[in-house]
Structure formats: C-alpha cells, structure tokens
Amino acid sequence: MQSKSMSSEIKFKNHSLPDEIHESKKGRVKLTDLVSRLKEEKKKERKSNIALSVAAISAVTVFGIILSI
Fold first, then answer.
1. How many domains does the chain have?
2. HEC string of the chain?
3. How far apart are CA 51 and CA 37, in angstroms?
4. What is the spatial distance between Cα 35 and Cα 7, in angstroms, rounded to a whole number?
5. Rounded distance, CA 10 to CA 14, Å?
6. Backbone phi, psi, residue 26, to 5°
7. What is the pLDDT of residues 11-26, one digit of tens each?
C-alpha cells in the first residue's frame, strides 16, 4: 500500500508547475490577473463559437443548394 503513495509522490515531485502557480503560493493571487485571464478565455471561446457557427451555417447552405438542384 505504501508503494502506491510513494510512486504518486515521486510523480508529483517530477511534475513542474507553471510560474503563475509558484508565484501564487508565495503570496496572494492578484485579482487583476484573474480578471484578465477570464477576459482572454471569453475572447477565445467567442472566436471558437463564431467559427463553429459559420461552419454549421455553411454546411446547411451547401446542403440546401445540393437539394435544390
């Protein structure tokens, strides 16, 4: 049983954390950093949603044109 916990500890020690997480362990997390990260995530999600919508509308349009021929 102890060998399982030891192996997970070794895996965790070998796992590197991003610099942001190391900084947050030293001090407080800055609210402005979190807000800016949230805004960036929303922008990425909005762009991917627009791309998916355009692809779906294009597929429906092409399918409609093929059916009308």
1. 1
2. CHHHHHHHHHHHHHCCCCHHHHHHHHCCCCHHHHHHHHHHHHHHHHHHHHHHHHHHHHHHHHHHHHHHC
3. 21
4. 37
5. 6
6. -75, -35
7. 555 556 555 555 555 6
Which amino acid makes up residue 57? I
- Per the structure, the complete domain to which residue 59 belongs is given by 2-68
Q: Which amino acid is at 20?
A: E
Looking at the chain, how many residues does it have?
69
**Residue 10 CA to its chain's centroid (Å):** 27
pTM: 0.52
Q: Which residues contact 59 (CB under 8 A, 6 or more apart)?
A: none
